User: Fold these one by one.
Assistant:
Number 1:
Amino acid sequence: MRFVFVGEPCDFPFEKLLGRRRRAKYRLRGFRAVRTNLKGSGLTGSDLATLVNERLDLVASVSVGQNGSAGRFEYANLVPPNGESQVKWEISKFSDLGRLNVNLEQEINDIEQSLRRAFLKNGGKENREGVILVGFSTKFRYLAEKSLDELNSLALSAEKVVLDKMVQIRKNIDPRYLVGRGKLREIVLHAKHLGADTIIFDTELTPAQANAIGGESGLDIMDRSQLIIQIFAKHAKTNEGKIQARLAEYQYNLPRLKGKGTTFSQLGGGIGTRGPGEKKLEQERRNIRKQIEQLEKQIDGLCRRREHTRKNRKTSKIPTLSFIGYTNVGKSTLFNRLTKSSIVTQDKLFSTLNPTTRRVMLPGGKHVLMTDTVGFISKLPKELINAFRATLEEIGEADLLLHVADASDPEVREKIDSVMKIVESMEFEYIPSILVFNKLDQADAETEAALREAFPKVPLVSAKNGKGFSKLLSYIEKVVAEEIGDDAKAGDFNPEGRLEDTVPSPLLHSPF
Ligand SMILES: Nc1nc2c(ncn2[C@@H]2O[C@H](COP(=O)(O)OP(=O)(O)OP(=O)(O)O)[C@@H](O)[C@H]2O)c(=O)[nH]1
Ligand SMILES: [Mg+2]
């Protein structure tokens, strides 16, 4: 296919002609752009940016010779990304078009092969979303970098391939492009050079920023909140989890359906992509509002069912103990070991969403009910707090909270504070809580000593090898007796230690 443009110098309108999508991540576009150049100034910065942005086979400039024939010729092609090197293209120059002695077919083929090799070497995968992470702060680089590490874990938990990370420190937030237009262009060029599909920002983008950045970049755009919501949607396995995750997605996306540049059909994908016209958008907005209403009703129903189950449990007078803590600290592993259960545990954030309750006998013969549930993270999106109310209310009904922290995490104190803040924001701070440090096997001696000194009463355990468990159980027993009184009765011990499963159901009422 050939296109010829005639007129004033202008940027190549590739996006309009070819659409946004490339053929494959490392593949070239199958188009070459040749610009005639009356002034003889050669390739411009804008030509070179187009080469990268559109992943053209090559971009060339031919000058007009003295007698009107073709004169000086130069072309640029992409070079594969190479570690820290910022070089994205190489330029070949010929004093006269007639001297062009290169087999361009062969050269383009070779370039494509080398781009493929570099893409795979950099961890890129054909069938997985490749992302660039962008950290941002108006204060300190180290804060942005620390937060970016967590974004990296979130991206991996969402099965994305992280191709690179970038950090921008700026005195003021750019209201339109967050990081400023110049920096954004640099990020986009880098993302496209690496063959990324999506740019994920570590800060919450306003709907207007998401639209503007999506429009400017032509890539899918996400922010931290959307990524967390996407993980919840991916990890939701039960009906309850799915309904709540869907509500969070809808609530997050509704205000972002403004104007052109977004499409709701991209739910769970990028928010900054091209979308339908105004009329269709209005129709979509109405549909979403209706769906939100229905989901809210369903969740209210779930809350009532859970409350009913809890009431039955309360009549048994067995104290309930809810596990809380930052995500991935080992709550479910600890729960499994204490209750002989088999909840899925993995080195991913937000593996557990739905609450599971089991009965456990303490060393003195008394029973408690233990509930494992969703973990927390700093800046937990408000849409999730609202949508997951059926799950979170379960925490609020506990007699005691078991706050699990990761002894081996250098950020453990900050994470304890984050969890406490969320507990306060949910107004559950009145519930007595026990702090426990897990992953003792992974903490070095120095860290262990520092924690023992700073938190002398706090039990240190390893859910992996069982160390510290008998002390922990005795400690729980002591606090239960002090805080809740002596209501914990021996009851009939159920050898499996199971009361109810993850799905609250009228058929699974507590037998107590
Ligand atoms: N070394 C070590 N690893 C542990 C320990 N406890 C848990 N883990 C690992 O930590 C990772 C997270 O464990 P989970 O039990 O899923 O953590 P969680 O707090 O329930 O996480 P979410 O449900 O995702 O919030 C898994 O890879 C576990 O194997 C421990 O005591 N020592
Ligand atoms: Mg868990």
Note: Residues 316-508 form a domain with the Rossmann fold fold (CATH 3.40.50.300).
Number 2:
Amino acid sequence: MLCLQADTNAGWIEAASRNIIALLCDHAHCERKAAMNGMYLIMHYPQHDTLVREMITLVEEETAHFKMVVGELYGRGISLRPDRGNVYAKRLAEQVRKQDPERLMDSLLVDCLIEARSCERFTILAGCEDIPEDIRGMYHSLMSSEEGHYLTFVDLAKLYFPHATVEARLGELATVEASIVRSLTNMPQMHG
Ligand SMILES: [Fe+2]
Ligand SMILES: [Fe+2]
């Protein structure tokens, strides 16, 4: 799917569907961090008008997703739990080069891969019959939004960098992403 080079491990959906509250808590934090990441990009690259405009929209959407997932928890009488961290995103972030302009391109492409993986996993969750129907409906509604975010990040990378350079770097990072995904231990986390 999309630019991904590996499918999610078969064991992940079992772990996720058996621990739906843990999954929702982790998912809520993923949405919160996606919104924060949009603000982070605005803070670091205020000179790029299109990036700023696109990230303002993204922050609004990710904040709405955060509110929606927290609402699912509250509807079940459960408070948001502390963030347990995200090994997947942390290992991907290590791939971002430290100096601009490479830092900007890598940041956009890592974000693009995270959105693509989220979209793939939402698709799996939406089709899992072991998950309550209302939660499956929520995941279904999020699929197209995350696919849109994936396209936003690719398009921004191609706006600021040559297409061939972007395609080549996206391929490299997708290979790393695939090896990270294969090494995951099937935790009830959105990227576990
Ligand atoms: Fe989101
Ligand atoms: Fe997103």
Note: The pocket of fe (ii) ion (ligand 2) is lined by residues 34, 62, 115, 146, 149 (CB under 6 Å).
